[in-house]
Amino acid sequence: MTALEARIASGELANNKPLPPERDLMEEFGTSRTVVREAISALANRGLIELRPRFRPVVRRPDYGTLLNATGTIVRYLLNEPGGVQNLYQSRVFIERGLVRDAALNATKENISDLKAALLANEKALDNSEEFFRTDIAFHGVLYRIGSNPIFPAMHEGFTAWLSPNWARMTRSDDHNRSVYLDHKAIYDAILERDPARAEDALVAHLSAAWKYVEETF
Amino acid sequence: MTALEARIASGELANNKPLPPERDLMEEFGTSRTVVREAISALANRGLIELRPRFRPVVRRPDYGTLLNATGTIVRYLLNEPGGVQNLYQSRVFIERGLVRDAALNATKENISDLKAALLANEKALDNSEEFFRTDIAFHGVLYRIGSNPIFPAMHEGFTAWLSPNWARMTRSDDHNRSVYLDHKAIYDAILERDPARAEDALVAHLSAAWKYVEETF
DNA sequence: AATTCGACTTGGTCGAACCAAAACGAATTA
DNA sequence: TAATTCGTTTTGGTTCGACCAAGTCGAATT
């Protein structure tokens, strides 16, 4: 029933609070436990309810993260279609091209210092492939956070969650890490000098190289 | 159970074909009908199955459209949060800025003729507000189709589906339509002349005006 | 050959029951 | 008094059997 959803949407059931017991709900709505359970599982699948086995369902006000969870399974299917990964990667490049342009034009001092910190973390982790992988992602993450629009960090999470499986299995040599670091540095420098065109070029070069690298290594 | 999902994912159940009856499935998996139903409804909520009341469930290979459906309900919640609409609109502006830049740089002759056709449709519908609204959306849609990446048209559908409710209720005078048309023409002209900066400026001006217009009319 | 009608199939709902784990409270202990 | 322990109750997870109404399909009729 959508009646249950309405009660959650209306905030009648507070956020992060457990749902009433199924047996109460069935009495309240004058329906059987079967339908109550189905309604609950439906809402759970939509992300409005968090459902830990054996625990009381918890009302969750959906955020952009829950949106990712909900889409995740479908996206995985789409990635298996021919060209799926490439399409998603293209979208990522498109987004980040815009991000670095904007960064070059509008980044605040604080944004730039964040970026610099991320770059430094890259450098520090040059000899630790696993750590470098994380700082690599974090560097790009800074770009998504510049605009203060919560949708973008969510997109970043999506890209990393859905694309990194294709990256993870490839061996990351120290040489490779070094070239990634230099790419990042080039992007940073261009942003620092307020040169959107160069920033965009550096980013495209960076991501194209990464794509080629993955293509070769399968 | 995730076992059912595996059978669908593996293509064992063909696309667009009805699912086996619940009673068969419960026998096949050695479980009760309740569990089967829950599994089915779970898959339905994920978009892998289309579920018409009283009809046999139909296996649906998910596409970018089903992804929108799945996210739709959650997005609506997010839009109700303070700043939700603005964040989404900002994202749209960000995307389209990139799109018009790319269009100015890379649009093929065919792309441009599509755009011209859409623009002409705008002009023809100037005195028909309802029709103009549709051609307005269609014009922007052309931009999303230029890159031949199926993700972008899906994004366009998302933007229009989620944002247009805020637009629909406002009255669209002929004057307003005319100014929208002129904006579109300015964007088109800039693309035609391969001037990405001007195209981007024209688009930003266009969408900013639209936003202001909505803000004023509530 | 097309239509009609009736029996069978099948999804939707219900109720009762059982199990295991969580939640709760009382009794015990330090 | 405060913390721990332990047994009872609550509650989600699952199963079974049953019924209804709408869809499906085939046989009989026109």
Report what the structure shows:
- Two copies of one chain form a homodimer.
- Chain A is an all-alpha fold and about 220 residues long.
- Chain A has ten helices and two strands; from the N terminus they run H-H-H-E-E-H-H-H-H-H-H-H.
- The interface of A and B includes residues 34, 67, 74, 91 and 151 of A.
- Chain A binds a DNA duplex (30 and 30 nucleotides) through helix 3.
Number of DSSP strands of chain A? 2
Shape of chain A: elongated
SS summary, helix count of chain A: 10
Largest sheet of chain A: 2 strands, antiparallel
Poorly predicted segments of chain A: none
Distance between the termini of chain A: 47 Å
Radius of gyration of chain A: 22 Å
Number of separate structural domains of chain A = 2
Mean of all residue-level pLDDT scores of chain A: 87
Helix percent of chain A reads over 70%
Give the quaternary arrangement of the chains: homodimer
Helix and strand composition category of chain A: mainly alpha
- CATH fold-level assignment of the largest domain in chain A: Four Helix Bundle (Hemerythrin (Met), subunit A)
Strand content of chain A: under 5%
Q: Give the helices and strands of chain A as they follow along the chain.
A: HHHEEHHHHHHH
CATH superfamily of the largest domain in chain A: GntR ligand-binding domain-like
Going across the major beta sheet of chain A, what is the strand order? 1-2
CATH architecture of the largest domain in chain A: Up-down Bundle
